[in-house]
Amino acid sequence: MPNFSGNWKIIRSENFEELLKVLGVNVMLRKIAVAAASKPAVEIKQEGDTFYIKTSTTVRTTEINFKVGEEFEEQTVDGRPC
Q: Please, what are the averages of pLDDT over each run of 10 residues along the chain (82 residues)?
């Protein structure tokens, strides 16, 4: 598996608002999330198949840890588990 460690910038995002709609995020939070998520800073630390990902936007910062192939819990933009 290639090592994805580093600091990353998203160049483009497609259908993010539609994804949030399918997840049941209300319209106001969708608009805020789409505006904030347009240019997030992403930091990835990888050790083998274990990942730490920190995503920072103007609205909030989220952090997740997971191991490839194992289930993990994450939250939607409005704080619900997914």
A: 92 88 90 80 96 89 94 80 80
Fold for 6-67, please state it.
Answer: Lipocalin (2.40.128)
Q: Read off the pTM.
A: 0.70
| Rounded CA separation 4/21 (Å) | 29
Bridge partners of 41, per DSSP, are 9, 56
Whole-angstrom distance between the N-terminal and C-terminal Cα of the chain? 26
Q: How far is CA 62 from the centre of its chain?
A: 7
Please give the Cα distance from 9 to 74 (Å, whole number): 21
